[in-house]
Amino acid sequence: MFPSTMLLATDPLLSEPIGQVDLLLMSAKVLTAFAFLLVSVMLLIWFERKLISHMHQRIGPTIAGPWGILQTLADGIKLFFKEDLIPSNSDRFVFKLAPYLSLVPAFLIFTIIPFGGDFNHTSTQTDPAALGTVTWRDHATYLQIADPHVGILLFLAMSSIAVYGIMLAGWASGSKYPLLGSVRASAQMISYEAALGLSVASVVLMTGSISTHDMVAAQAGDGFAGILPNWNVLATGLVPFFVFAIAGTAELNRPPFDLVEAEQELVGGFHTEYSSIRFALFFLAEFMNTITMSAIIVTLFFGGPAGPVLIDSIIGSDIGWAWGVLWFFAKLFVFLFCFVWVRATLPRFRYDQLMNMGWKLLTPTALLWFLFLSAINIGDSQGWHRALVLAVSLPIMLLAVVLIKQAAINSSRTQEQEHTQQPLDNSP
After folding, report:
1. What's the chain look like in SS3?
2. Is residue 235 part of a domain?
3. pTM beyond 0.85
4. How many domains are there within the chain?
5. Which pLDDT band, with edges at 50, 70 and 90, does 205 fall under?
6. Which residues form the domain of 276?
């Protein structure tokens, strides 16, 4: 049996017996997050269509609403009232279940994201534990739905479960093209999931906690020489961030890694046989995942809501928590823009290119850098000289890179030889 405290989140709201006000606050946070995600998806679809159209010198939606802003709402209404088709040779139960297996994890991931709060050390010097807390009617809480003990591990678990929605959708459709898309999704997940987990492990190593709230608190305040921010993207040496960003794009099945729904090869991929509201659920899950992945990147590497409080109070009321909300959404918008920018710029990778990138580049890079950061941390804890640790670690890393590169070259040569030596089948 686990201790009872392991079943509770670390939110101060749950540290005492739960009353009506506590239930009201928790319900308000859940409804706010759910409404934010739904509205954000609608705006993100419009934003992506308009931004890509301008990048490609096109117009984009202009009819429904001012600047075409209601075009997504019109598309949603159209999909809701379209006929719902179910293939005759499909597994009906799994076919209906698959869209929800993609949608629900996207929302559950957002529950662990701190999207506000005062993380300014100067305003909480008397009580460091108060970082990121807000108080309403003498009830302190975090501006996040939950801060479970498993922390960022919930993100890794939900991202793995979300792939089941794509896999089961392709399998249950009873058609070969969706099945090929689902098989691609399973192979694609294996190729990037290890790199994704190792980049997260580097952040956990530097912050010393798997709690998303503690990760943001560790990044609060000034960094090197009081000039640079104390963000993990700098503390981990940039490499885990780039690995996570690339692997996260593959996790989202967005261009240039949208191989599971490549329309030129697989008609529409795993959702070929879906229509009406079930297709809309997959569409909703894809863009909701984009928002949650951007929020995860902001939380892990860019301080989340942590940022300077430019104005301490207005008309005598403390608004430090509001600055946290402002900084979080500003950072979130930057990464949403970057995802759209990448989609408008890069062509789709070949399937073998993605697999090679995952197994031969991302995973070894993330593993080597994690070991490098571990060596530095161990050296600091043991009092070893930093220069000595670097002098020993860097040559070992360089040797490992050379060996991995040579192994990849030898593997490619072996495959080419086997392909050229294979006799051609000229039978009719």
Report:
1. CCCHHHHCCCCHHHCCCCCHHHHHHHHHHHHHHHHHHHHHHHHHHHHHHHHHHHHCCCCCCCCCCHHHCCHHHHHHHHHHHCCCCCCCCCCHHHHHHHHHHHHHHHHHHHCCCCCCCCCCHHHHCCCHHHCCEEEECCEEEECCCCCCCCCCHHHHHHHHHHHHHHHHHHHHCCCHHHHHHHHHHHHHHHHHHHHHHHHHHHHHHHHCCCCHHHHHHHCCCECHHHCCECCHHHHCCCHHHHHHHHHHHHHCCCCCCCHHHCHHHHCCHHHCCCCHHHHHHHHHHHHHHHHHHHHHHHHHHCCCCCCCCCCCEECCEECHHHHHHHHHHHHHHHHHHHHHHHHHHCCCCCHHHHHHHHHHHHHHHHHHHHHHHHHHHHHHHHCCCHHHHHHHHHHHHHHHHHHHHHHHHHHHHHHHHHHHHCCCCCCC
2. yes
3. yes
4. 1
5. very high
6. 81-310+318-349
